[in-house]
Amino acid sequence: MAWTQPPRTWADAELVTASIMNTHVRDQLSALQKRAIPIGIGDVTGDVITTGTKAFIEVPFAGTITGWTLLANAVGSIVIDVWKDTYANFPPVVADTIAGSEKPTLSAVQKNQDLTLTTWTTSVAAGDVLAFNVDSATTVKQVTLGLRLQMA
After folding, report:
1. How far apart are the first and last CA of the chain?
2. Whole-angstrom distance, CA of residue 138 vs CA of residue 115
3. In the Cβ-directed half-sphere of 19, how many Cα atoms lie within 13 Å?
4. Which of 68, 70, 55, 69 is nearest to 120 (CA)?
5. DSSP H or E run through 31
6. Rounded to an integer, what distance in angstroms lies between the CA atom of residue 134 and that of residue 3?
7. Fewest beta carbons within 10 Å, which of 36, 46, 73, 138?
8. C-alpha–C-alpha distance, residues 6 and 29, integer Å
9. What DSSP string runs through 49-87?
10. Nearest CA to 131 among 90, 94, 83, 86?
């Protein structure tokens, strides 16, 4: 997200108090701290996605996962588990799941998202490694999972 024009219109010779300025600076910095972590899963041969671990990514900053969006090339079904561990303990395994009962899932649809994550372990530390494991899939050949991350 880019810097946006503050919602307040400033007047000539207006006294800008610390409270007014702090509110606008805080809001802008908060907007800049939101990031997305996109993970593409698919088979270059064009076959239906198979089960198993498909990708690893190191998270370079601390933050909180606030939601996910899953998009597919076609209507189909897939369940992706997300695992997290430290770099020192690489690779993450199924015991390191953070997705709770809200695994990123498509069920005979082409898109889905969860922006509440009530059962996830949402905190990540700088340097944590995330693994993405396909538990099941039918029909879909390419999907993109986007994790929303609010920087600490």
Report:
1. 16
2. 24
3. 0
4. 68
5. helix 18-32
6. 36
7. 46
8. 11
9. PPSEEEEEEE--S-EEEEEEEEEEEEEEEEEEEEEEE-G
10. 83
Q: What is the pLDDT of residue 101?
A: 95
Q: What does each of the 152 residues of the chain score in pLDDT, given as a tens digit?
A: 455 565 667 777 777 777 776 666 666 655 555 577 888 998 677 899 999 999 999 998 899 999 999 999 999 999 999 999 999 999 999 999 999 999 999 999 999 999 999 999 999 999 999 999 999 999 999 999 999 998 87
Tokens of 72: 């597919």
Query: Contact at 8 Å (CB) between 119 and 101?
Result: yes
CA proximity to 57, closest of 39, 41, 72: 39
Dist. CA 90–CA 88, nearest whole Å: 6
Spatial distance between the Cα atoms of 105 and 48, rounded to a whole number of angstroms = 16
Distance CA 4, CA 7 (A): 9
What does pTM read for this prediction? 0.79
